[in-house]
């Protein structure tokens, strides 16, 4: 198996989810601009150019994986075929596909009323009572659910390819499934402080299990200070940081002891834990006090 703990985090780069969203947005903007400013005779050829923007951006994102892919392929002890797959198939893309499956499974668990998986025994750390997640979830559902019958009526009155209709309705249903699944997973997760570890989990998006002794420092992050501003003021580059939060801006910075061989999971892809971890909790001051008490209290 590959030694994930010894593989550097690499430069900061967008996730595949962000890459696909950016590519779709660029293509839509180009097509709108083409239809607005170019003569109708030139639109078909120009649309072909806009179409190639999507695979172009995805290819650039894939090339950003190659340096880390070479490191992981060189460290694995598996067969040559597995090494080639590790090199050519971005692990982050596989993690994104796994995230989609896990989140859809969360929706199924909600429908079947399955009990959530057990969390470690310890002190729960609230991260949704004062946050905006529940409010945004309601807004998203209110915006998506009525859109389905509206889109059905609009597309039924327009002559078009059947595949386009199927893709549009599939995307709408998938969005609702992911919203409901994410809600179930976020509620089933949550942060827990045990006697020895701080277990962080925000649904299927991100998770980390930090030994208390490896948390060198915990610092409050002012509401007026973004984590990017904090990095600039402390001379920290973004590739040395990570964020564990559902929607809210982080309000706590956890600095990890240098040399600690720890991992964290982001969108179901495991990598080395960065030097600084930005998280959101409802009461960051209380968590700092609890961490200090955990460091001072001897283990039985």
Any overview of this molecule?
By secondary structure, this protein is α+β, with helices and mostly antiparallel strands. 51% of the residues lie in helices and 15% in strands. It has helices at 16-37, 43-51, 53-75, 80-88, 91-111, 133-144, 147-156, 162-188, 227-234, 284-296, and strands spanning 123-125, 191-193, 197-202, 206-211, 215-220, 241-244, 252-256, 263-266, 269-272, 276-279. It has 10 helices and 10 strands. The model is unreliable at 1-11 (pLDDT under 50).
Quick description:
The protein contains 10 helices and 10 strands. The chain is α+β, with helices and mostly antiparallel strands. Strands 1-2-3-4-8-9 form a 6-stranded antiparallel sheet.
Instruction: Give the termini distance in whole angstroms.
Output: 35 Å
Number of strands: 10
Please list the strands of the largest sheet in the order they lie side by side.
Answer: 1-2-3-4-8-9
Helix proportion:
40-55%
Unreliable sequence segments: 1-11
Tally of contiguous helical segments = 10
Net shape: globular
* Strand content range: 15-25%
Query: What structural category arises from helix and sheet content?
Result: alpha+beta
**Nearest-angstrom radius of gyration?**
22 Å
- Compute the average pLDDT: 80
Largest sheet features: 6 strands, antiparallel
One letter per element, helices H and strands E, the order comes to HHHHHEHHHEEEEHEEEEEH
């Amino acid at each position: 198996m590959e030694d994930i703990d010894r593989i550097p985090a690499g430069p900061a780069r967008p996730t595949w989810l962000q890459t696909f969203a950016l590519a779709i947005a660029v293509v839509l903007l180009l097509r709108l601009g083409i239809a607005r400013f170019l003569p109708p005779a030139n639109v078909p050829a120009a649309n072909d150019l806009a179409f190639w923007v999507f695979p172009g951006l995805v290819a650039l994102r894939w090339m950003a994986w190659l340096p880390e892919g070479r490191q992981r392929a060189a460290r694995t002890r598996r067969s040559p075929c597995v090494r080639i797959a590790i090199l050519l198939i971005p692990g982050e893309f596989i993690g994104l596909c796994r995230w989609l499956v896990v989140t859809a499974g969360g929706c199924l668990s909600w429908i079947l009323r399955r009990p959530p998986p057990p969390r470690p025994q310890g002190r729960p750390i609230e991260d949704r009572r004062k946050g905006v997640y529940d409010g945004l979830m309601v807004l998203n559902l209110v915006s998506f659910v009525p859109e389905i019958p509206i889109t059905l009526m609009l597309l039924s009155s327009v002559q078009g390819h059947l595949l386009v209709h199927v893709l549009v309705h599939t995307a709408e249903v998938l969005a609702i499934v992911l919203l409901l699944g994410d809600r179930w997973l976020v509620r089933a997760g949550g942060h827990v402080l045990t006697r020895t570890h701080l277990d962080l989990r925000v649904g299927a998006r991100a998770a980390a299990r930090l030994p208390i002794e490896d948390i060198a420092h915990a610092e409050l992050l002012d509401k007026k200070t973004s984590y990017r501003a904090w990095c600039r003021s402390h001379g920290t580059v973004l590739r040395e940081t990570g964020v564990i939060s559902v929607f809210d801006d982080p309000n706590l910075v956890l600095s990890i002891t240098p040399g600690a061989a720890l991992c964290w999971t982001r969108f179901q892809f495991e990598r080395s834990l960065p030097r600084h971890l930005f998280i959101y909790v409802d009461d960051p001051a209380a968590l700092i006090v609890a961490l200090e008490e955990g460091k001072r209290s001897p283990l039985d």
